[in-house]
Amino acid sequence: MAADKRWAAHADLRADGRYEVDRPEPITPAALLSMMSNGAALVGFDFPIGVPAAYAARAGVRSFNELLALLGNGAWSSFFDVARTRAEISLQRPFYPSAAGGTKREHLLEALGLRSANELFRRCDIAKGRRACPLFWTLGGNQVGKAALSGWREVLQPARASGVADLWPFDGTLDELLARGRTVIVETYPGDVYSYVGASLPKTPSGYGKRSQASRAASARGIAEWARRADIELSAELDRELRDGFGSSKSGEDRFDAFVGLLGMCAVVQGAREVGAPASDDVREIEGWILGRAAS
Question: Do both 77 and 117 map to the same domain?
């Protein structure tokens, strides 16, 4: 993932029981790992954490935790290298393609030995709400594969190797993990909570959606009202950035998503939004889940 797309928003729990949220700041993997080692925190990442169950069955993967420890070594040494051609795709090198030009998702199905396009998705990717992109596809503006590759190698693997963090839902339920007083890593999907937190992203003369500063700014009032009702206080600097649509630079959409994703996490911790993960062995062991996403 490009360095200029890495932003983090954080909320601190005050003595009066309210959360205070500050404006998003640039973040590096090293800074994240240092923060995780400091103690109790819930840390959410906007990239997939887990693999499709159908793929895991074909690859002989019994759990995502076990797989994570293997990646980049031995038979899995090429896992982080995105396949350039359909001939390079394999169960141990499933991400594709590295560039456009004659590439199709059907190439992944064929090379991975999957039966249908749905088997490229995890259950949470196609659950109720905005449909996520399939994990292994690495082409286009909505792809999530490259973010997963960066996140797994630069954050998840080091965090697990050093023992500074637990991984939900693979290490236990959210309540169980939070009770341990350690850092807990979860997967988030900001697009899944836009409407929940009042981010309407309406059409404007200059565009609409999260890529439009005007559309982001037009959502400010609804988000601020939702935060007030949820007993979440926005810092003065964050409030100004929110009403400005997080600026005109390309990083505006990333800062917006970091902030909205954080609000969704707060709602789950406060008990206003369900955790969402169904009681399924595949979810707990292989696929993982997007925090707060409804199962159906």
Answer: yes
